[in-house]
Write a structure and sequence with these properties.
- The complex is a heterotrimer.
- Chain A contains three helices and no strands.
- By secondary structure, chain A is mainly alpha-helical.
- By secondary structure, chain B is an all-alpha fold.
- Classes of the chains: A mainly alpha, B mainly alpha, C mainly alpha.
- The interface between A and B is large, with 44 and 51 residues.
Chain lengths: 112, 227, 82
């Protein structure tokens, strides 16, 4: 559906903007989560075919279903998104323990 | 000022790169050729009603193996970083009586619902991932309502390792006895639409569900013990 | 009818995204991100993908918000100890 594709692209751009302009580490992780949701919406909206129904077959040999492959890919991606977000939050806790600050401008030791 | 300009140019370029998806893709009339094979031959070859399940477990089984590996690495990383606080230092506030009574009513129903979802993965929408997440949410409710809950981490580690090992062993059985890695025709296909049908798909999906549920409970347990 | 529904849900999602970006209170930002995932799960049902809708509803608006709240609580406790 075209509207959902446009919504997905808007969410990707908003998520990336949040990651690039915000200074708080937790806000950057929230931006990552928004971008993740946008990408999943984009992929599932490509697989939709007008006036067909969900890919569960009641009777053998009925072929009025949508594409099952994008659904399967996004199912895996959602669970991985949760695991990566939890790992990033653990890193944020550890960084706060060391420097007592959540501002990303304070962590400049690796800059030349 | 220059930094803001560079950021805006980057985002405009990203939007322009994604534009052909909106302007040039016409809505599809019929399926692509790969999906046509999965849809037309899927239910006869594999015997399961849910096409997304048959794609995840059998046709693209290697992707599921990779996903399970990524989940394991993330859980191991979280467990490595968070230190456990000893019992007496943690401040425990009791949950209100509303939460405690509600949990006592709802918890068996949540567990039953989770087990139902992953046993019927090949017949209705659902399957291992969804069932595992529902069971992990049930255990989270138990941890929030009853502050003295100690999750037995030995059982968690054994459930997770044994499910992962059996998943690979069943995959190798598929390689030896039937068409390829993680083929589900090692067990008889049975009657279409019954619970004990679709070969080895219920067994493989139950193992995946148990492993995903155990790993999510491990993440939540590590984060809660370090508070 | 379905188009109108998707337009309304889309506008609420974009407003919630702006709240999540520009709100100074971190708790409100986390809850706004949970609202985005919940509305996305409704859109998945309209796109005829029930498996994805179940998974997104349970993970996106349940477990992700809880993990964020655990992290915020731990940071607050470290700040209070110093």
């Amino acid at each position: 559906m075209l509207l959902v594709t446009i919504l997905g692209v808007i969410l990707i751009v908003l998520g990336l903007w949040c990651m690039l302009t915000q200074k708080n580490i937790i806000k950057i992780i929230i931006g990552f989560s928004i971008m993740d949701t946008g990408i999943h919406l984009l992929i599932v909206s490509i697989g939709y075919i007008k006036d067909k129904s969900a890919p569960i077959m009641d009777v053998v040999n009925s072929s009025q279903v949508i594409d099952p492959v994008p659904s399967a890919l996004v199912l895996t991606a959602i669970v991985i998104g949760l695991a990566v977000t939890a790992l990033m939050l653990t890193y944020a806790i550890k960084l706060f323990e060391i420097k007592q600050s959540l501002d990303i401008n304070d962590f400049k030791e690796l800059k030349w | 000022m220059v930094k803001k300009l560079i950021i805006i140019i980057t985002l405009v370029l990203l939007a322009i790169m994604l534009m052909p998806l909106i302007t040039e893709v016409k809505p599809f009339e019929n399926l692509s050729s790969v999906s046509q094979k999965y849809v037309h031959a899927g239910s006869e070859e594999l015997g399961s009603q849910n096409l997304v399940t048959s794609v995840i477990v059998t046709y693209r089984g290697l992707d599921t193996l990779g996903e399970v590996a990524v989940l394991f690495i993330a859980t191991a990383g979280i467990g490595f970083f968070l230190r456990r606080k000893p019992e007496e230092e943690r401040k425990k506030t009791k949950a209100s009586s509303l939460v405690q009574t509600g949990t006592a009513f709802l918890l068996p129903i949540i567990f039953l619902f989770g087990v139902y979802i992953f046993l019927h993965g090949h017949l209705t929408p659902g399957g291992g991932f969804q069932g595992g997440v529902v069971i992990a949410s049930g255990i989270l409710l138990l941890m929030l309502a009853n502050v003295d809950t100690k999750i037995n981490t030995n059982i968690l580690y054994w459930v997770e390792s044994v499910s992962g090992a059996f998943y690979i062993i069943i995959g190798i059985f598929g390689l030896v006895l039937a068409g390829g890695f993680l083929d589900n025709r090692i067990l008889p296909l049975g009657e279409f639409g019954k619970l004990l049908s679709a070969g080895a798909i219920p067994i493989i999906y139950s193992l995946i569900g148990l492993k995903v549920g155990a790993e999510l409970v491990g993440i939540l347990n590590n984060m809660q013990r370090s508070q | 009818m379905v188009t109108l529904f998707i337009i309304v849900l889309g506008i609420i999602m974009i407003v919630a995204a702006f709240v999540a970006i520009y709100q100074k209170n971190l708790l409100s930002a986390v809850v706004a991100s949970g609202v985005i995932s919940l509305l996305a799960s409704i859109i998945y049902i309209l796109l005829a993908a029930p498996d994805v809708a179940m998974t997104e509803a349970a993970i996106g608006s349940g477990l992700t918000t809880i993990v964020f709240l655990y992290a915020l609580n731990k940071i607050r406790k470290i700040k209070a100890k110093k």
